[in-house]
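Problem: given the chain below (580 residues), write out its structure.
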Amino acid sequence: MAYIKDEEINAIRERADIVDIISDYLSLKQRGKNFLAVCPFHDDHSPSLVVSRERQMFNCFTCRTGGNVFTFVMKYENVGFVEAVKIIADKVGYNLNISDYQDFSSVNKEDYDIMEFTKKYYLNNLFTEQGIKARKYLQDRGIDESIIKEFNIGLALSNKDTLYKLLNGKKYNADKIADLGLINKVGLDIYDVFTNRIMIPIEDLKGQVVGFTGRIYNNETDTAKYMNTRETDIFKKGHILFNYHNARNSIREEKCIIVVEGNMDAIKVSASGIKNVVALMGVAMSKEQIDVLKKLKVPVILMLDNDQAGLDATVKNGEMLLHSGVDTRVVRLTDAKDPDEYIRLKGVDALKDNIKHALKYIDFKLEYLKNNKNLNNMEDLIIYVQEVISSLNNTDDLTKELVISKISKDYEIDAEILRQKLKNTPDETKKVEKTEAKAANKPKLSKYQIAVSKILFSMMCDPTYITVYKNRLGYFKEKKERMLASEIVYYNTVHNNINIADFITFIMSQEELYSYVNEIISENNNTVVSLEEFNSCVDVVLNILKKDEIKELKEKIKHELDVNKQVELITRLTELKKEV
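Solution.
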C-alpha cells in the first residue's frame, strides 16, 4: 500500500483551497465569510453544507458530516485517503510520486492481488497468437486496441487449468482462489471457471478489480453468452456500477450520467466518445447504487435495453430514483435491442441526439401508463388518471401543476378535482422526510457539553487556547473529551502550531475521535470564541468538575470510619464549596 509523507500531505492541503475544490463538485453560494451548498451526503432540499475558506473545512449542520478537503473527496468520490490525496494533488498540479498505487484494504489485500494478477494474465493472453481470433472479433465490434487497453479486456484460453497453475505457482492457496470464483474444485480435480472467453474486468467504485464478465466470441451455442464471477467477499453486484471509476471526471464535465444494462453496452458507448456512462450488474438498481447516483447531484439518464424487461426496469428504477430525489430522465432507443446495436445501425450522432433529448421521467411515465389502455373507454381513462395522480407524489410543485393542467385540458376534467385527488393521495416521500427530520433532531446539550465543545474547537484552531487549557484546566470528565484534548496538545507539541484542517487529517484514522471532531465542528458554526469567553467556558467546566467532586466527597464522608481521614475529607469539602 502506498505511503505519503506528512510533509507532502500538508503541502498539498495548503495548495488546495477547499472552496475551489468543492466547487468542482457542488454549486457554492457565498454567504458572508462562508459558502453554502446542498449537502450531497444526505437527502438535502435546502443548502445545509457550509464551507469555510478561513478554516479550510466543511460541515453539514443536518447530517453532521464534516472535515477538510481530503475528507470531502474521500466521501464524495468513494475512495480511500491515499487516492483522495492523489486526486487533489492532480487538481492543484502537485507532482506526487506514487508508483503502482493501489488503495487496498489490508483485510482483503490478497484477494485484490489475485484479481489484479488475473486481469494482467487475461490481457496478456489477448495479445498472443492464441488471441488473434478474439482480437478480430473485438475489432469487428468496433473495439480497437486503445479501448481494449482502457478497459483491460483480456482472454481466457481454452486450457482447463492454466490460470490455476499460474496462481498456484505464485503460492496462492487453492481454496482462496476458489472463494474468489476463479476456479472450481470437484474432488481432486481443479479447473478454471472461465475458458475460451473474452474477459472484461469488473472494478469497484475505487477502481479495484473484484470480478470478471466472460463473453463467448467463437459462435458456440451450447453455453451461456455471458458469465459473471459469482458474488464473493469483495464482489457484491449491488455495490457495483461498471465503469464508474473511469467515468467520474466525464460525469462532472457533462453534468449527467448515463446508465445502461450491460458491460459491453457501456464499453461501446464509451468507445464512441460518450464517456459519462456506467452499467448495472443486472436490470434492477440496489439502494447502494442509488445512493452513489444520488450523491453525484446530476441528472441520471436511464438507457436500458429496448425489450419488455428493459422497459419494466426503466419504470421500476425510475420510480426508485425519483423517490430518492434524483433528477431522472429516460432514453428509449427504437429499432435496436440495446445501445451497442443502436450505434452499429444508426451511428453515434443519432445516439447523442437521443441523449440530448432525453425525456424527463414524468413525461416518459405519462406515455408508459397509456400502454394497454383505450383512453376513449371511460373505465380505462379513470384508471389512467388515477395512476398519473399517484405518480406525481415524488415530483415538485411546478411539475404537479403542469401535469394537472395537461390532463385537465386533454381529457376535459376539472383541474380542481385533480388537485383535490392529489391532495388526498398518500405522499410516501413526505413521510420519509418527516422521519428523517425527526431522526436528525439533535439532543439538547448540557451547559458542560457546550463549554467543552467550545474549548476543544478553539484549541483545534489556535495554539493560544491550548496554553490556557494546559495552565487552567488540563482535564475533562469524559474519556473521549480527555483523549481528544490529549491529541490536540500532542499535535501542537510536535508541529509547534495547529490549524483545524491539518488536525483533521491527523485524527482521521481514529474513527471514534474523528466522529467526535465532526460533532464539535457542527456545534460551533466555524466560530472560535474570544479569549474572554474561552476562560468563561473553562470556569464553567471547573465549577462542574468541583461540584462532581463535592458529591463524591459527601459519599466518602458517609462511609469513612477513620475520624482523621473524615476530618481531611470535610476540610476539602469546605474548600470546594467556597470555590464553587
